[in-house]
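Many introductory courses stop at the sequence. We go one step further.
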Amino acid sequence: MDPLDSSLHVALFAHHVARPDDEIDLGQAALLIAAPEYPELDIEAARAQLDDLAALAKPALSGLLDGTARAAALVQYLVDEQGFRGNTDEYDDPRNSFLNEVLTRRLGIPISLSVVALEVARRLSVPLRGVSFPGHFLLRADGKQSVLIDPFTGRAMTVGGLSELLARVYGQRRPPRPDEVQPASKHAILSRMLANLRNLYLQRGDIARQRLAEERIRAIEAAIRSLPSHSVYPSPRSSLVH
């Protein structure tokens, strides 16, 4: 990545996120995050991969009417049949945060795997949303009942499992608070993806890439400030990453 080209990438990203949350194309925005690292990246071809996944997943939802069941079946299909999984061996590999790489390698971290699931779900009108849970991004299926799903395994989370995740972050087990399991806005999801990259590059001493991530986070913050309050819905804090 040439740091001298960062202004163009920031401008393109800022233009895309400077709109109400429901008008943001999450997949395209995530691909714009990857663009500086991959000069030859074909964003439309990557989006077509999401279209293909949706077409392949559709039969797995056949006969399922409840939104929760459809969402759970979709995430399980992506894990079991398409092989999407968490990269536990190289968790801090930056490629885990770039949507094009996740689509190709089938490896990611919770939030990037969730973006794949969210974008496939959107194409199939499946009620699936992201949850900016502390330390481990989750998916939320809403139908007859609300269920939180781990994008690593495709399986529903128990209260005990959620308490264990909180213990890893805060050092003590406790039930999750209501605000910790609310759906996250697309602005918040993108901010958390960028926070992951910022923190990773900070640890590596890669100042140019750290600053690029920070500039894009500021672009999101500026976009939110400029939008009418009714077009931005509250979301959990995104400071705790992955």
